[in-house]
Amino acid sequence: MKVRISNKKIRELLDIETPKFSKYISPLTNLANQYAGGTRPKIVGQMTELIKEFVGKNILEWETWYLQQKPEAIKTATEMILNKLNNFRNTLNKIDQSVVEEWVRDLVIVKTFIGLRLQEATLKIGADIKKTSYRLSNPKEEAKGIDGYIGNIPVSLKPDTYKSMKTLPEKITAKIIYYKKIDGGVELDYGNILIRRGKK
Length: 200
Prior knowledge:
Layout: H1 7-13, H2 25-36, H3 41-44, H4 47-53, H5 59-69, H6 73-92, H7 97-130, E1 134-136, H8 139-142, E2 148-150, E3 153-159, E4 175-182, E5 185-189, H9 191-194
Parallel strand pairs: 3-4
Antiparallel strand pairs: 1-2, 2-3, 4-5
Helix pairs in contact: 2-6
């Protein structure tokens, strides 16, 4: 039997207060932290290791113990994140209709086109490797998560980060070709379509 439990419920069970933030504060602060790196191990410590060393029972004991180990961590992380939020604030003041319109055009027109061409280029390279033909999928096949075919193999093109996603909303039966953006282009992993059953 599997039981799902939300972070909110865990807080309730452990009698830990949930902060009440205004809308957008959490996602914006989280985004700023991603850029700033305020809660990386070198700043706040390796949390998985620290929690193993902790022998107390409740949240207050944990806070006291943690701050004894890392007395400057919260302050340092806060300053790093706040600095990045200030950078955001300055940038927001420079964003007007023309900037947003240019961003939307790049996303809708340019990146959509590049994405489609990347799919075709990926299929073509895979077909050359397998010495076979290729084709893009039709709308019905796309709905099943298939981006195209290399020979008779249905394939789907996914970013490398897709491997680490714990909760995947879709079930893909196609062979996956992973791609990773690198300087000057992309790196394509054709390992899944080159594997032959019964052979190493």
